[in-house]
Structures are given as C-alpha cells and as structure tokens.
Amino acid sequence: MPAIHFILADGTRRSLDAQEGWTVMEVAREAGVPGILAECGGGALCATCHVHLEPEWLPIAGGATETEDMLLELAPGRDGASRLSCQIVLTPALDGLTLRVPEEQAS
Amino acid sequence: MPLESGQFSPQSAAPVVIVGAGQAGAEAALALRQGGFPGPVHLFGREAVSPYERPPLSKGFLLGTILEERLIFRSAAAYEAAGIRLVLGREVSQLDPANRRVVLNDGVAVDYAACILATGAEPRPLPVPGGGLPGILLLRSLEHARQLRAAIVPGLPVVVVGGGYLGLEVAASARKLGAEVTIIEAQPALLHRSASAITAEALASRHRAAGVRLLLGRQVARIEGSVRADGVTLAHGAFLPASLVLACIGAKPEVALAQAAGLACDDGIRVDAACRTAFPDLYAIGDCARQDDPRFGRPVRLESVQSATWQARCAAAAILGKALPTPRPAYFWSEQHDAKLQIAGLADPRMPCDDTLVGDPTGAFAVYRVQDGVLRTVEAVNRPRDFVRAHSLIGQRAVELPAA
User: Fold this and answer.
1) C-alpha span between B277 and B286 (Å, rounded)
2) Which of the listed CATH numbers 3.90.340.10, 3.40.50.970, 3.50.50.60, 3.40.1280.10 matches domain B125-247?
3) pLDDT tens-place string over residues B216-236
C-alpha cells in the first residue's frame, strides 16, 4: 500500500495509505482532503484536482500528458511540477509520493 | 436559540441540517467544515448508500470499467473524522421554517441553526398508457443503474425514449455492450435546445455509425406488455419490440418538502445568488434549486455537477458569513462512442445563436456559439484546447476563432 503525503494550503501535512490502482484524486477525495475538488470525477475534463508534485517526485511520477497540460491552463498557479491528481495512478514506485495542494483551489 | 442569518454562534448546539446526500449535499457538508464551521453538521440521505458520483452511472459504471466502490466520494470514516453526521436511509418528511425544525419520517424532530435543501430531482415517468409497467427503467440513482446494467443483454433490443444527454450516453454504453439499441426522440433532432444543431448532428452520425437506430420526430403512443414492458408502439402505429425500455425524458426537481413548507417553487426552489430561500437560514442547492442568474436576468435551474458544487460552496459561505466564491464559467461534459464533448459556458435557450464550426464534425471539432454579438458557449468534441481557451473568452465580443 503506497503512502501519499499531502501538504495542504495551510502548511499542514496529511499522510494517507493508498490503494494501488487508485488515482491520487480518488485517494484524496475518499479521505476528504481539502482543496481537491475533482468536479468532473476524474475524466480529465476540468482542472479542479490540481496538485504540485514535490520536485524529487517529478521524474518518478512523470509530467503532465498533452491533454492534462492543456487543462492545467485553467488551474491558477500552475508550474512545471503541476499535475491533475486524477491522472496519477498509484503504483508501488509512488510509495511516499509528496504533493502540495494549491491554495487557490482551497477557497 | 434562533440565529441571525449568515451568522453562527459556536455556543449554539443546533446543527446545520442538510436534506439530501447527493453531490451537492455532500459538498456543502464538507465546505462548511473546510470553511471552519464549528457546530454540528447533519447530512440526511434517503438512499442507503454514502454520497456517490452520478455522471459515470450512464457510462463507466454501465460498461463495468468503473466499479461501485470507486463512485463513493468518501468513506464513512472520512465523514466521521470531519465531524459530519451522515444519516442514511432516512427521509426528512417535514420542514418547519418558522421554528427552524425538520421532522424525520420516523417522527424524530431536529432543530436547526441553518438548513440546506439538496433534495435533487426525480426522473419523469413516461406519460403514456403502459408508462408504469415493470421493465421500464429510469436512471438517476445507483440502484437504477444496477437494474439497468443487469437488464442490458447482448443481442436483445433496448429502446431508449429521449434523445437528451442521458439517453444518448446510455444508448452508447448499451450498444458497446452488444445490445440492439433504438433511440426515440419526439423532436426532429437530438439534444433539442441543449446543444447546437452542428454538434447534435455530429453525435447523431456517430450513433448511427455505431449501429444505434435513431427515430427522430417520433412520438411514443404507448408501452406494450401484459406483465412487463415488451415493446413500444409509436404514434404512427409502428411497433418496436424491447427487452428493456429506458425512459430518459428529463427530471423534475424534488420540491415537495419545500412546497409543503410554503416556499415558492416554480421548476425548482427559488433562491438568490447566495442560495438563500425566502425564509431565514434556509437554503436550497443543486438540481432542486432555481437560482437568480445574472447571465440571463432570470432564475435558472441547472442539472450539473459544477453548478451543484458551486452552489454548495455558496450556501456554506453564506452560513459562515463569508464572501461567496468567485463564479467561474459553467461547464458540462458528455462521452458517447469516441466523442468526448466538453462545453464551456451556457447559451440562453430562448434566444437564437450564431454558430461557427471549426474543424471536422466527423472527427475533432468545436462550435463557437454567439448570442447578441457575445460568445456564450463553446462546444468542443475531442478538442480540449478549444474548451480550455473558451474559459477566458466566454462573455467577450468579436472573438477571434482558431483557423482550423
């Protein structure tokens, strides 16, 4: 079971045990992590599950796909480490994945 | 102790009561907590299952690609951890706004500090003889979707009544599962008033290419069957055999509770920009609410996830006495066959649109819809770039369109 660490907008950390095969968005939503709205339910249709990967995780989790990259234009504060959390499927390699939830999404 | 509207005193033991545990209700509960609401929050759901996501019910869930457990937003433990009391399988049967009280169907009364009605909408039954026969299915709830999934059998005829988004999505799923699918639509085109003619026709072509039979401009006269529905007779006399009939002719807002309490209801519970009803500390959100809409200068009821979650956050902000969240352009989506449709913005269905097609309707395309010189909405099929770009263009005049 991979562990995921969310750094919330207020700076607090929230660590969750995740199920392999689930997306980061689903794990966050299931546990009620604030700031992950995920309005479209994970279809890469909106950009309300935006997260920033901590830099060391970018090469492991990979960057945004082409469609994801377009949608991220809708996400305030996007940067090179931005991903849609609904597009990150959890594998054993992502055990310890650490990401930040953007402040703009929390309000 | 009664509270002033928009204020909450932590000393008060009275909860915020949310009636209806769909996406709007669940989001409101969480938004209250995330906004720092210190008091109790009670979330009452009629169904026995924790709040879940409805859009996949007509798509991934029917196809078996999305399992039931993945539809549930969050675990019971997560509600508990957030201090939200989730009460399932019980109905609020009475609302007494003057005394700030709801009564459950087992007679238990709960006094509230504020109440949010998130009662949703109910699918309309077929208003024809035989319209109530067993074997006619509806789709709104997870239970409906389970029944529907069990009833779709490869090779057997499925008749979908209604060529709106829901009917089209189910038709595409049922076809993919190998059923022989017919869609009957009373209007001469699909998606009447809810999409451009260009998009409607492009989707119709995809359905035909996938082997779905479209009967447009045809009325259902009655549903046939002695014990259960086994066919549909059309107004001009043709008979279509059916192993299953699905009624997808729209939904009506669930307003009985509100109406009995004396609230003004006219295709939905009337609310202002903050989702307030005419009674203090009483709000309505989601599919059951008809909200003042500055875009059109009249109240509008939308059945959309984005609208439901936005209204949930508005009601929570109003209860917390905080500024309302910033409105963003409306958006909608649908998936049928190979078409991933994304719509940004909302056109006024009562006014004509100037539509401009960009791209190839048989492949990827977008339709830019202008009313009174203003870009109101963009429909993008397999062109997410246009959908994304639309968010900053909606509401503008003289928008420069992409070359192709």
Assistant:
1) 13
2) 3.50.50.60
3) 999 999 999 999 999 999 998
